[in-house]
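quick one before i forget lol
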Amino acid sequence: MKPTAFIVQVFLAGAASYLLSSVLTPLVRRMALAVGCVAHPAQDRWGRRVVPRLGGLSISIGFLAAVAWGSFREPRLLGLFLAGLWISGVGLVDDFRGLHPNTKLIAQIIAGCGVVLSGIQVDLAIMWLAIPLTIGWLVLVMNAFNLMDNMDGLSAGIGVIAASFCVWHALEAQQGVLAILLAALAGATFGFLQYNLPPAKIFMGDTGSQVLGLGLGSLALLGAWKNSTNLLSILAFPTLLLAVPIFDTLFVTVERIFHGRHPFQGGTDHASHRLSLLGLTTRQAVFTLYGVSAAFGAISIGLTSQGQLMVTGVWLSAVGLLLLGGAYLARVSVYANQPEVSENPDVPLIKTGLMHKRRILEVLVDFTLVCASYVFAHLLRFEANLTPDLEKLIFQSLPWIIVIKMACFFACGLYRGLWRYLGIPDLINIFKAVALSSVLSALLVLYLWRFEGYSRAVFIIDGLLLFIAIGGARLTEPLLNEWVFNSLEGSKPVLIVGAGDGGELLLQQIKLDRAGNRRVVGFLDDSPSMQGVCINGIPILGTRRDLGRIVQTHRVQEVFIAVSRPPSDLLQQIQSFCGENNIGWSVTGIPGSSPSTTSTGV
């Protein structure tokens, strides 16, 4: 239990920074308008309004004031204070005049060197590795928050969430000064965020985003996990806490390089932009990423009392989830003249698999799942009580397990199908691939080590976990499509007449046709046995006699007849009703036909 006075100090630090930032931000806004430091609409920017910048000044002042106070109690913080002043000044110049990306990168490296010289760095015995690793980490986090400042409230909100979870970690470890500084950073950023939420009244700018990144990156290295001797354990918690900005930075960089664009070139190709292009509003996209960031922060809290192997397994699973998200978002076309790549499963694997970025992502996802499943199988079998000898056996056999299972996945054709069209035959194929790979893995362990020290039950548990993980991974795309479809705002409500196979196929067509911007509110069907049931979550609202009531209640704008060879009286009723009420209607009696190409209504 933490002393009350200690928690009060942390709270007061956050509250004081919040009040200071809340007061300074409107003043900075007026100053930015007076001097003409505003962001204008541009092709490579998402916003379409003229908005003042420099809002990050309030974050810098609130946070650096706390760091200056902390430097009297912790001398290493003096280097962070000077580095923060430096990068804040560079950001201020960039907001006013604009700096070349190379110039900004050099300035970030100098700031990272200042932090390292003060003694804040990754604690590794190999000094020549620790120093460049620390500088690279700080540069990555600074750029991550700088690039995340691409949509109203996004970078600041993620910063508040990450800093808040860091405060939790610091309180658990009774790191007083660290908790106070993180609370001050969270408070200062939250004070600015209230003016930056969509629609933003002021932007953060480089003045604040780089200081926010430098502060979080540096203080994260001072966490309780810093005393670990394992590199993965040292970086696992900071990368989980900052998972969203790091993912967005790496994702955008890889995508731009893949499409022949400069990685430092601005653009509307970030994760937030792609969510909006899928149909989410700006606020929905921003709060979705808030939720993802909070989820990873909660995972980091749950791992604080776990062993190294558990941390490794969960971290690998988290990486797999991020890769799944990247594979889904990469489908969104954001670049002009983006070439269409054939995904025909009949084309040879060498042309559609290894040479296509999506297939590479699928392989990486399966790689992380293979590793994580093997680790979790041992944790479940031995109830998380793993001796050093068992851990040695795991790391000894894991490379062989990876080779066998990935080879079986290739041989069984797991990388030939399309995840969006996952069906029962695909799940059967996954089961065959996992079962074959598990049997071969067990035989290899028997041949190489005679199963000395190994548990046969582990391979059964591993097979079950891997089947669930691989099948679940391939279900993510249909599930995300469903979530996006249900989250659309401003879409056209439509009604489907006919709840048979044709109606179900038409529902799937509408869900996949995002350009049509339609939302199915329900079905009509005259069959008594169909009343009150749902098809893929969409209810059957009644019979044709209820047409008028349902159209009025749900404000239906379009009616589709998904009945093979519809009777003439049904056609006459729909045509007459829709004509009188100026509602569009279509006949799609052939299952699978596109509603956008068969319109016969007004």
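fyi Residues 442 and 452 are 12 Å apart (CA to CA).
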